[in-house]
From TrEMBL:
It holds the Pfam family NUDIX. It comes from the Bacteria. Keywords: Hydrolase. Its cofactor is Mg(2+). This is NUDIX domain-containing protein. It comes from Lysinibacillus agricola. Transmembrane segments: none annotated. Signal peptide: none annotated.
């Protein structure tokens, strides 16, 4: 069993965050754009590729804000995620000027049905994964100090 690295973009503008909108049997859920690192690929190369695939835009990558682990056997979806161990790296990102309205994903995830700008203060009313990320995003956006390592959260 391997540990999978995933790299995520936190694209925040005017107190809103850009999220992928996805759908499953429970309804809509939201994720930060990004995905799995491929062998031989750097974190930045992964994030650039994933943003083109999922949002159709290039991004400027800033600082690393959060690291989150997900050990599937420890969480609510253990019945089908038992063998999953993923480490996610969340970077502050900005859309490249001129591409802000060109949201044409080239290879969206299988559950992805769109993109949505969500107001940071309204995150609590959205099914965002990881769920615990909501409070850290709200703290970060209000200027509070946040930990970088968030632990094994969902």
């Amino acid at each position: 069993m391997q540990i999978r690295n995933s790299v995520k973009a936190l694209i925040i503008e005017d107190d809103k965050i850009l999220l992928t909108k996805n759908q499953d049997v429970e309804g809509n859920f939201y994720l930060c754009p990004g995905g799995g690192q491929e062998h031989g690929e750097t974190f930045h190369a992964t994030l650039l590729r994933e943003c083109i695939e999922e949002i159709g835009c290039s991004v400027e990558i800033g600082e690393l804000l959060f690291i989150r682990e997900y050990v599937g056997k420890n969480h609510e979806y253990a019945s089908f995620d038992f063998n999953v161990h993923q480490v996610e790296f969340y970077f502050a990102c900005q859309l490249i000027l001129g591409e802000k309205t060109n949201f044409q994903p080239t290879n969206p995830d299988s559950h992805q049905i769109g993109l949505e700008w969500v107001t940071i203060k309204d995150l609590s009313s959205f099914r965002l994964y990881p769920k615990e990320l909501k409070k850290y995003l709200q703290q970060y956006c209000s200027g509070q100090v946040t930990p970088i390592y968030l632990g094994d959260i969902n």
